[in-house]
Amino acid sequence: MSACRADARRPSVSADGLADNRAARDRTLARVRSALGKKLPDAQAKANAEANVTIHRHGPRPRMPANLRERFIERARDMSSTVESIAAISDVPRAIAHYLDTLAPEIGGQPRAGVCWPEFATLDWSAAGLSIVSRPTLGNDRLGITGCFCAIAETGTIVITSGAATPTATAILPDTHVAIVRAERIVSGMEEAFALIRAEQGATPRALNLISGPSRTGDIEQTIVLGAHGPFRVHLLVVG
Questions:
Q1: Could you say which of 103, 138, 213, 239 has the lowest number of CB atoms within 10 Å?
Q2: Tens digit of pLDDT for each residue in 93-112?
Q3: Which of 139, 142, 162, 164 is nearest to 211 (CA)?
Q4: CA 219 to CA 201: how far, in whole Å?
Q5: DSSP 39
Q6: In this structure, what are the phi and psi dihedrals at residue 91, rounded to the nearest 5 degrees?
Q7: What's the CA gap between 26 and 7, in Å, rounded?
Q8: How far apart are CA 25 and CA 44, in angstroms?
Q9: Stated pTM of the model
Q10: Segments of 8-156 assigned E as strands
Q11: Which phi and psi angles does 146 have, rounded to 5°?
């Protein structure tokens, strides 16, 4: 975790630096394509790949219930997430304040301050007694509040795609991660999640995070320990 926190404090890469990285990547991939004898233009190769994905049949899959929302909540709790249902986004600050109150005996103090994604910056945090700022975490924030691209009912998983407005570190570095899940964005399985990413974002994002409950490890004596490489706790607010 210390290495991750150090990385979070590094200056952001400049636009020129990212362009140089992309150019180097493109040159490397061009050499690979040449060595493999692939002469098709990039656009045609992409079209061929998309056509293959479209016609590819899914393998055997478990039967899913009609109510994906209930299934997601059930599986998320199986993965040690805590879950609360709320009616509207405006209820988020109150719900988080109540959740933090329940944590007080466990953590010996309430992390009433934290960071959130830009889409939640205008919520009335102060009315709920919270001090929440919209910025990427610096590595020492105890509470991180995010949304998610979608959620997967089959596994109780939330999907986070990287981007300037959706910094991944906010979901990974703080001890407590609260994620807002819109009920209409709950899909059946990973197949639907990836199809939704292709349909709405086109190109695959630079990073894709599938989060199923708190960080955990069983390396030592096969005993599960939470918070080993990320948040100790994940709380999901299902909206709608």
A1: 138
A2: 999 999 999 987 776 666 78
A3: 162
A4: 37
A5: -
A6: -85, -5
A7: 26
A8: 19
A9: 0.77
A10: 82-86, 113-116, 131-134, 143-146, 150-152
A11: -135, 170
> What is the token pair recorded at 186?
């709950």
Q: Does domain 68-239 have CATH number 3.30.70.270?
A: no
> Could you tell me which residues come within 8 angstroms of residue 6 by beta carbon, excluding any fewer than 6 positions away?
139
On whether the CB atoms of residues 136 and 169 are closer than 8 A, the answer is: yes
Residue 87 makes CB contacts below 8 A (sequence gap 6+) with: 239, 240
d(CA 230, CA 218): 14
Domain ranges in the chain? 2-55, 68-239
Q: Are 88 and 237 in contact (CB under 8 A)?
A: no
Angle at 116 between CA 112 and CA 120, to 5 degrees: 110
Give the pLDDT confidence of 162-218 residue by residue, as tens digits. Answer: 999 999 999 999 999 999 999 999 999 999 999 999 899 887 888 999 999 998 777
Confidence of residue 68 (pLDDT cuts 50, 70, 90): very high
The C-alpha atoms of residue 106 and residue 84 are separated, in whole angstroms, by 19
Token duo for residue 118: 């830009």
Degrees, nearest 5: CA angle 142-120-77 = 60
Amino acid type, 157: T
Asked whether 151 and 208 are in contact (CB, 8 A), the reply is no
Rg (CA), the chain: 20
